[in-house]
Amino acid sequence: MKRKLKVGVLGGTGMVGQRFVALLENHPWYEVTLVAASAGSAGKRYADAVQGRWAMKTPVPAAVAGLTVQNASSVPQIAEQVDFVFCAVDMPKDDTRKLEDDYARRETPVVSNNSAHRGTPDVPMMMPEVNPEHAAAIDAQKRRLGTKRGFIAVKPNCSIQSYVPAIHPLLDFGPERISVCTYQAISGAGKTFETWPEMVDNLIPFIKGEEEKSEQEPLKIWGKVEDGRIVPATSPVISAQCLRVPVSDGHMAALSVSFARKPSKDEILARWRAYEGRPQQLKLPSAPTPFLTYFEDDARPQTRIDRDAGNGMGVTIGRLRPDSLFDWRFVCLSHNTVRGAAGGAVLTAELLTADGHIQAK
């Protein structure tokens, strides 16, 4: 790459936006040259805009601290200054969808953390190790938008990032039914224990919209591109329950799975240990190696000690054992604001860059 691509972060003052800024510090391909947020933060130095609410463990990157926050709705001005944008705005879904469309139509690719376009048939919802072929829908999307280089790609919901990668290497065994319960960290709600003290010593058995996403989004990920549209798979049937738990970062999933052709334990473990996706084959900067890690210790994975596997981009698995109602059950863990949010979007952008979909203007 002749020069680093100029990147804008929309919604850069929020929890996920901060994670984008932190992850992109010293990135070999990308440079954050612009940060945008709501009108309330526009005009401030970035360091001042996040003062008192910077939630990352590392300091605000010096190269970004002095940038003047721009108004994310100033699409023409921002589009002229960057090669592409990451989107993590906190807006109503319809407003987010329009904003992302506006950037794409201004010939500025959008890699989004938001859910607004996850159901749009020609917008790839990408988990790079699982469905890189869905980028084939981008050409049809460009025709719909009337663009040459502008498009939108999104990452899936954070709650599915742990268990979909574990099921994917087993698809040829025909998973038919999945029952999953996710135990989700408070950072998934953009909170810390300081800002949400009610979560200390507490558990909330409801996260609005999360169960529907957990049951539906994997089917799009496992769908096929037909005539420029992603047609969701019709199986497996997924039943999900999603709970908010008193954990800072890291989403755990406990699931039971029935297969059309039941694999042996050795077959499952062999698939997990051998699996690698296109990001690993291309050695993309953010790709974890290994992607999947299985623990023989029944007490692993644990959120606090395993969520940072692969710099927060790896998926850890444990407790594979027979199930009395299904065939097999096991637990999975992923870091929800790294793999499940900003990091997953960065890896998606890296794959799209490697394949020529994102280029310098």
Automatic annotation (TrEMBL):
Semialdehyde dehydrogenase NAD-binding domain location: 6-138
Pfam families recorded: Semialdhyde_dh (PF01118), Semialdhyde_dhC (PF02774)
Q: Does the keyword NADP apply?
A: yes
Q: Please give the name of this protein.
A: Aspartate-semialdehyde dehydrogenase
Q: Which UniProt keywords apply?
A: NADP, Oxidoreductase
What gene does this protein come from?
Answer: asd_2
Q: Which organism is it from?
A: Anaeromyxobacter paludicola
**Family, per the entry?**
Belongs to the aspartate-semialdehyde dehydrogenase family.
